[in-house]
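Lab meeting, item 3. Inverse folding demo.
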């Protein structure tokens, strides 16, 4: 969305904050948020892979932010890591963004063709290990404008899923597997990961289907629903698959079965809190994709994306940075193969 003189990427709506002289950034509109489960209502206020983007004339730009807790902010100039990290807390702080490296303007044209972003685009990428709701107070600078179409990727990838998609345990927002996938594809990422709360609500499926601003959707469906009864799981994932693909027949929809986690490694994790085995949940998604009448739906096995147990952190469910990087590379390759067929 365009807000004043900048682009707020992966931010669907801003809400005024009483007594704060600023606006809260959220990844879905309030009308959608209030219909989600309690956990998801909180998670969509976490701004992961949201970005404050702008192009300036080279003069310093001051961005004033605060958080309801602590939130990481990472600076990029286009595709290039600006090597600056900020932690935003409860008191407003000023992040001053200067001009990028002047050497960038001297790069030979042969090396520019495959860049995803123009290096003139300043990108404050939000979220990471610290990801509490963020408040934007002001942006000040001369001749600031939002990026133009040729300065950002044309291809847009929307990713829905659990905390793994959300980016938990990745050292930075650019290192989660969804961001890594987009980097390999040359795509602009819309991250709708919902840590611990990806329950495939009908209202969220409708929202994703009606957005119209993505070309590829990856739907990781969903280890957060392992406590659901199998028929309820099937009903929800089937609705999401059919609705998102049915309203976007010219766009690619890739459904991803559960990524490998502790229940796959011989650990005794049966009990009444589980609605089925990990394999039964995977099969239910396979069945939903098979039953979908739309030609633009494809199935990807999560076990083909994260292939090595060493890619997990010690909790045996969340990938480490190494795992995230592997997943991004593998998923991008799968999607490239599907694109040729599609």
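The presenter then showed the designed sequence:
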């Amino acid at each position: 969305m365009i807000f004043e003189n900048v682009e707020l990427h992966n931010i669907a709506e801003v809400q005024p904050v009483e007594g704060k002289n600023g606006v809260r950034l959220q990844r879905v509109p309030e009308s959608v948020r209030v219909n989600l489960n309690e956990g998801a209502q909180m998670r969509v206020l976490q701004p992961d892979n949201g970005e404050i983007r702008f192009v300036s004339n080279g003069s310093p730009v001051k961005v004033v932010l605060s958080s309801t807790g602590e939130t990481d902010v990472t600076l990029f100039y286009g595709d290039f890591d600006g090597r600056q990290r900020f932690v935003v807390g409860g008191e407003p702080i000023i992040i001053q963004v200067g001009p990028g490296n002047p050497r960038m303007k001297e790069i030979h044209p042969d090396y520019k063709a495959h860049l995803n972003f123009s290096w003139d685009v300043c990108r404050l990428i939000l979220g990471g290990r610290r990801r509490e709701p963020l408040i934007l107070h002001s942006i000040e600078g001369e001749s600031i404008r939002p990026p133009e179409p040729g300065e950002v990727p044309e291809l847009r990838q929307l990713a829905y899923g659990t905390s793994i998609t959300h980016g938990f345990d990745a050292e930075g927002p650019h290192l989660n597997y969804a961001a890594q996938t987009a980097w390999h594809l040359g795509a602009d990422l819309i991250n709708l990961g919902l840590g611990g709360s990806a329950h495939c609500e009908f209202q969220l499926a409708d929202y994703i289907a009606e957005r119209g601003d993505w070309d590829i959707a990856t739907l990781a469906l969903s280890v957060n629903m392992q406590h659901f009864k199998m028929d309820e799981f099937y009903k929800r994932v089937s609705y999401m698959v059919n609705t998102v693909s049915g309203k976007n027949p010219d766009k690619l929809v890739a459904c991803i079965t559960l990524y490998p986690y502790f229940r796959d490694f011989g650990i005794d994790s049966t009990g009444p809190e589980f609605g089925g085995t990990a394999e039964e949940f995977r099969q239910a998604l396979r069945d939903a994709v098979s039953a979908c009448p739309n030609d633009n739906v494809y199935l990807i096995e999560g076990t083909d994306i994260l292939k090595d147990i060493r890619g997990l952190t010690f909790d045996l469910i969340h990938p480490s940075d190494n795992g995230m990087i592997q997943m991004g590379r593998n998923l991008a390759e799968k999607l490239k193969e599907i694109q040729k067929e599609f």
